[in-house]
Amino acid sequence: VQLVESGGGLVQPGGSLRLSCAASGFTFSSYVMRWYRQAPGKERELVAVVTSAGGSTNYADSVKGRFTISRDNAKNMVYLQMNSLKPEDTTVYYCNADRLRNHYWGQGTQVTVSS
Asked: Per residue in 39-53, pLDDT tens?
């Protein structure tokens, strides 16, 4: 099982980034997919979730209207489009796959929003 995030980096406030998460080793289309983020010394925060078929999404209040989660079950990929980025969005973002008792995590990708 692997979840590999990519797309992080340094961006100016107001800018955009698109995170990607490539999944392998499990039946991707059966899993709910989530993006979390966690800053040092802080609790992990759920950012966005998409259902297995992609028909429903939900977002943390802090990112609602700015971030969009999507998935491509044919490619075993999940994405997080992040617009209007703010300095407080700076942290490591993690991809998570969840189904029943199975929970898988990626290694994380760093996002830094700074001028």
From this structure: 888 999 999 999 998
